[in-house]
Structures are given as structure tokens and as C-alpha cells.
Amino acid sequence: MAIQFVATELTDDERALQQEVRAFCESHLEDGSFEPGLGMMVARSKELSLELGRRGWLGMALPTEYGGGDRSVVERLVVVEELLRRGAHLEQHWTADRQSGPVINRFGTEEQKRRFLPPICRGELCFCIGMSEPDSGSDLASVKTRATKVDGGWTLSGTKIWTSNAHIADYMIVLCRTGESDDAHKGLSQFILDMHSEGVTVNPITFLDGTAEFAEVVFDDVFIPEDLLLGEEGDGWHQCTSELSFERAGPERWISPFLLVELFLREYGSSLNPEARSFLGSSVSRWWGIRQVSLSVARMIDEGLAPSVQSAIGKDLGTEFEQTVVAGLQQLVDLEPSLSSDRLFHRLLARAILISPSWTIRGGTNEILRGIIRKGLA
Ligand SMILES: Cc1cc2nc3c(=O)[nH]c(=O)nc-3n(C[C@H](O)[C@H](O)[C@H](O)COP(=O)(O)OP(=O)(O)OC[C@H]3O[C@@H](n4cnc5c(N)ncnc54)[C@H](O)[C@@H]3O)c2cc1C
Q1: What is the pLDDT of residues 304-352, one digit of tens each?
Q2: Where in the chain is the domain with CATH 1.20.140.10?
Q3: Which residue spans of the chain are classified as CATH 1.10.540.10?
Q4: What is the pLDDT of residues 274-312, one digit of tens each?
Q5: Substitution candidate for ligand 1 out of 362, 369, 374 with most atoms within 8 A of CB
């Protein structure tokens, strides 16, 4: 089967939105006013999330009746691209805006939509994703965390791992086993879990750069009320895989080192040798091609298509590109990067060297994505 992409560009309206967000970034995210990060999952700023909510830049593609903007996936891409390339602190709303909101909108009850979507669109709620477990990462269908039916709801027991933002999250969308079946994909369900429930323990995991943005989360007989089952009991696998398609091909998969390149040019741009010029030239052309893939995927989703294979291609190409950029910059500069350097470029390069290996792992490893692409080509 041939894999199709649509050829597309930003429309005049989308370019106008881009200018609007750029102007916002100039006035609200001035250089030196905050420590920028590399792409998503940097740090949180509740004030920034609330401000983005007030401007209608969260929940953009959600229905207006639940506080959303009824806008397109491409418009969300335009907004997110500008914020990410400035290294803005988006952690407070990132997962809720990208993924949990759309999943609740798609599978949630009317009551759940009314309860969760408006505060997500206002930037008030922080969500995390409870999929991976100590023995279930790529083989997600083998999760062992179990919810057992009790009077008025369910009790949840088990352990999740690598849960980004678990330490600050208000809610987790958790994937767990609720039934028995010889087919591992059946008998799974999703719940919206209040992270402040009794029996939830969050154990931070320190990353190579010393931050602790993800965690192990242990559930010890945690009670979940009946009305927080998300979607159909037993349909968790289907829901969860559709959720993954929301998170795969966005700008966060190819923009992480953008600021690093910009800072490199500011510091070394006046004396680039041929090697540096060649590296930058090829990086820019690859970057532009991958951005087109991402834009195409967003456009296809807006057209009602389900470009899951194209998304996997975008993430595979994008994250590998990001790592190549970091390795290339490391070769070009003659310095020992340090997290405590007084120069931003050096601090960010040090951070990138330490965290970039994770870019091809989070959200599904590149080996797993290539399996999806191969099946799509069959
Ligand atoms: C920064 C970061 C943030 C994360 N945030 C979250 C989060 O918020 N929520 C969450 O649920 N999870 C999160 N994860 C977990 C992530 O989704 C898993 O790490 C990932 O799915 C891989 O699973 P694993 O670590 O168990 O590795 P494994 O599945 O054990 O894989 C180990 C290696 O074997 C390869 N491999 C495995 N199976 C196959 C196969 N069938 N064919 C070929 N190769 C294979 C993999 O590609 C990998 O190289 C995060 C991970 C990182 C690094």
C-alpha cells in the first residue's frame, strides 16, 4: 500500500495567527525573563497556561460548548510551534491540551466532558498519562495494573513508571486490566484517576540532567468512583491507541533543539567554517521537510482522515533529526558543556546532550514506530 501525504501550506488566516502568537511571544516571553527549555516537558508556569487559556489557545480543536475553540488541528500546530521554539514553560497544560482533552471529548460521558473540558481549556488542570509499567513499555497490551469492581466503583492496584509530570498532575488517564481474556488486547479499560486519591504514591525518578519530571506511581487499593470510567469497559486498547495518534507527529517531535541552533548562530554565526555551513544547510532542509510532514498530518486529521502511519513516519524522522542536530552542534563547538555555565547556549547544549537520548524513546520507540510503518506498507 502506498502511504499518501497531502501537499499543503499555511493559509493566510493561519499565517495571521502565526504572527499573532509571535507578537505574544515577543511581549510575554522576552529573552532573559525565564530559563527556556528544549521543546515540551520543560517546566510549568501556571500564569502562562492561564494566559494561553484566556487567549483561546488551549483546547483549540475542542467544541465551544465545552470551552474549546472549534478550531483546527493545524491552527493548534501553529500556536504550539511558536511556543515550543521559544522554550516556553508549558508543562502545566501540555498533556491535557494535546491528548487528555481530545480523548475525553471523544470517549467521555456528557458529564465528564462538562466537568473536565472547560478547566482544561482554561489551563487549570494538569493531566498525566498512565500507560507504561515496569514490565510493559513497548508491549503495552501486557499491562498488569488491575481495577476490580466494588460497590460504587473500582479499586486500582499496580505500578506505573516513567509517568511524566505525575508529581504535579491533578489527574491521570490510566490504562489497566478490568477483565480476563486470552487476547491481551481485550479486557483493558481506561479511568480518569484523581491523583490526590488515598493510596496513590508518586516516587520521583531523577533524570540524567538532575531534574525529576517523571515518576513511578504506585496504586494501593485506590478507589475510583464508577463515573470516572472513561469510555467502554474493555475497550481501553482501542481508546488508548487512538490517544497515541494525538501525540505522535506534532512540532514537539522535531523542534526540541531549535532554540539551541538559534543560540549557536547568535554566538558563532559571524565565523562559520565550511563544515558548520554544510551542517546547518542540511539541517535546515531536513527540518523544513519534516515540518511539512507534520503539517500534512495535521491537515489530514482536519480532513477527517486517520493518518496513523504518516504520524509514525513523522515522529521517527523528527526525533532522529533532533538527535542528529544535537550531535552535530556538539562536534562544531569546542567546549565542555556545563549545566551550570553562565551562558545559556552552553547550559542548553549540556542539557540536550543528557536528555536527547529520550527523544526517540518517549511516546513509543523508533523500532516500534517502524513496525507500525511496515504494517502500513503491507
Ligand atoms: C522522557 C520520557 C517520558 C515518558 N513519559 C511517559 C508517560 O508520561 N507515560 C507513560 O505511560 N510512559 C512514558 N514513557 C515511557 C515510554 O513510553 C516507554 O519508555 C517506551 O514505550 C519504551 O518502553 P520501555 O522503556 O519499557 O522499553 P522496552 O519496551 O523494554 O524496549 C527496550 C528496547 O527494545 C526495543 N523493542 C521492544 N520491543 C520491540 C519490538 N517488538 N521490535 C523491535 N524492538 C523492540 C525498543 O525499541 C527499545 O529499544 C516515557 C519515557 C521517557 C523516556
Answers
A1: 888 889 999 999 999 999 999 999 999 999 888 899 999 999 999 999 9
A2: 248-377
A3: 12-125
A4: 999 999 999 999 999 999 999 999 999 999 888 889 999
A5: 362
> Could you give the dihedral angle defined by the CA atoms of residues 231, 234, 235 and 239, in that order, rounded to the nearest 10 degrees?
70
Alpha-carbon distance of 80 to 153, in angstroms, equals: 37
**Architecture, CATH, for domain 248-377:** Up-down Bundle (1.20)
Residue 87 Cβ < 6 Å to ligand 1? no
Separation between Cα atoms, residue 12 and residue 114, nearest integer Å: 34
**CB 367 less than 6 A from any atom of ligand 1:** yes
Best residue among 42, 144, 159, 162 to mutate for probing ligand 1, ranked by most atoms within 8 Å of CB: 162
Q: d(Cα 340, Cα 300) in Å, to the nearest integer?
A: 43
Angle at 180 between CA 179 and CA 184, to 5 degrees: 100
162 lines ligand 1 (CB under 6 A): yes
Which is the CATH superfamily of the domain at 12-125?
Acyl-CoA dehydrogenase/oxidase, N-terminal domain (1.10.540.10)
Q: Which protein residue has the closest C-alpha to ligand 1 atom 25?
A: 137
